Amino acid sequence: MSNVSLRNLSKSYDRTKTIIDNINLEISDKEFIVLVGASGCGKSTILRMIAGLEDITKGEILIGDKVVNNVHPKDRDIAFVFQSYALYPHMSVYDNIAFGLKMRKTDKKVIDEKVKEVAKVLDLTQYLDRKPKQLSGGQRQRVALGRAMVRNPKVFLMDEPLSNLDAKLRVQMRSEIKKLHRKLDTTFIYVTHDQTEALTMGDRIVVLDKGVIQQVDTPKNIYSNPANTFVAGFIGQMNFIDAKIENGFLTFSGINIPLSDDLKSKLGDRAELTLGIRPENMTSGDYKLTVDVDISEMLGSEKIAYFNIQDKKCSAKLSPDYEIGEKIELSLSTDNMLFFDKQNGNNILM
Hints:
alpha+beta; 20 strands; 6-stranded mixed β-sheet
């Protein structure tokens, strides 16, 4: 079994700076889970603690049913794919892939079979005699993956492996890594700061902020029902609008929208709350709001229009038939809104 458990996991430096604050997380066998958050949120530190490259201040890490806190990294049966590829420049592709097996004094015949098998899967057979400097960024990343794969580890750990690639190659490599996960049928723990990678690759996403887990859920649920304003703003674009509830009406920016009986009972009369509306949901509803377009971004079949509501920059996805400086009419509905507590930022309906 290659499930991973993090139990009351904490990491502090000098007892003053807490990087990871009492995290609990269960990662299932064969799951592809993505840790996502801004720089400095602790996601890479978690990965390094799982690998044994970083000491644990408090808590336990289990791989399978075994506590590995004091187990040497080489004995944890994990493979680590680094952001920088970490290839040996003086070695051929073949020797880079084979390096870990040679260190374990694996039989030469077995090494040869495994290296060639992995090279075939990753389309590297024709490059086995080349040095890393003779390869493209995508090919180097595949070599790094091959070096991890050849050992058949229980768990793959990947620390922003695509961040050094150009945009087109990142899209291609996302697909390749997902196909690789299905083929190897083992556990992948993937770290990124890129929300698109998180949404497109993960079976589940773990959203982190300042060393604390904010939400763990499927990409669909994270996007459509974020736990708080941090998750809502970090995963995808979100417009935040100040509002209040008076006598069963949702009131903001001169608009009064009657609430259903269900929403009335859940929201109550609140002097203040924060609405969250995705850009694609600013044009589907019966209640109109006119705004002035400040900036637009052309995306082919649609444009992103930017405008101000309550002196806050907001956006909407629209058909491309308007110009900067033009007035546009938004169509709003409570069916497409999220409701957040003004004080703590939590999703009121969760």
